[in-house]
Automatic annotation (TrEMBL):
GO terms for molecular function: peptidyl-prolyl cis-trans isomerase activity. Residues 38-144 form the PpiC domain. Residues 1-23 form the signal peptide. This is Peptidyl-prolyl cis-trans isomerase. Transmembrane segments: none annotated. The lineage of its organism: Eukaryota, Sar, Stramenopiles, Ochrophyta, Bacillariophyta.
Length: 222
């Protein structure tokens, strides 16, 4: 009876709402959720002020100095970048950690949209930028990024080269990585649970609406 009432009332409740052209299908939703849940990144940044017209050029100059130091000394890029962050970055919270924003944090973790987006776009292990935001100019170094195969392939993290010199790319050793099949199964179960709750809530709503409209004299659960 609840299901029949729900079928009768839903068209009345939503008769003036057109279905969006770009509405997500269940498969699209699962794919979107999979990517959002499993993309993770370890990013360092250096924030420089943009209080003058020379701010962008100063950021470019620092970027080149970091690159030159890495190449000339065959140094590990994370060490050089972290040292520069401690010395030059005006983001004091991350500067004391060598510019580290977070280790294997999900997409959307950063409060700065431009920086968050860049973390999933710039090449792995390269000093990138400057990227402008309302906070200033950012130099960015991505040290590890998982579940972004189109960007990184199978080499997803930066490590020291042989004898501790230089920089190399290597496969990730992050714990807790899940296959797409595992994640899709989990997300599917979450979606099914969500729609079951919606269905049950809709049945109660339908009965209450029917009672208010005089279709039913009593509601069964009273």
């Amino acid at each position: 009876k609840r299901f029949q009432l729900l079928c009768l009332l839903l068209p009345l409740l939503f008769h003036d709402r057109a279905t969006p052209i770009n509405a997500f299908t269940p498969v699209d939703t699962i794919r979107r959720d999979f990517l959002a849940l499993t993309r993770k990144v370890t990013t360092h940044h250096i924030l420089l002020p943009k209080t003058s017209a020379e701010g962008y050029e100063a950021a470019l100059l620092l970027k080149q100095k970091i690159r030159n130091k890495v190449n000339d000394r065959n140094a590990f890029v994370v060490d050089v970048f972290s040292s520069a962050a401690k010395k030059f970055s005006i983001d004091l919270e991350t500067a004391e950690r060598g510019g580290l924003i977070g280790e294997l944090v999900p997409q959307g973790y950063s409060i700065c949209p431009e920086l968050d987006r860049a973390s999933f776009e710039v090449p792995l292990g390269e000093v990138s930028g400057p990227i402008e935001s309302k906070y200033g100019y950012h130099l960015v170094l991505v040290c590890e990024r998982i579940n972004c195969p189109k960007l990184d392939g199978t080499l997803t993290r930066v490590i020291r080269g042989e004898d501790g010199l230089g920089t190399m790319l290597a496969p990730s050793t992050a714990e807790g990585q899940k296959s797409m099949g595992q994640t899709v199964l989990e997300v599917s179960m979450q979606q099914i649970g969500f729609w079951i709750v919606i269905f049950l809530a809709g049945g109660v709503l339908a009965e209450m609406s029917a009672k208010a409209a005089g279709i039913l004299d009593t509601v069964p659960w009273e």
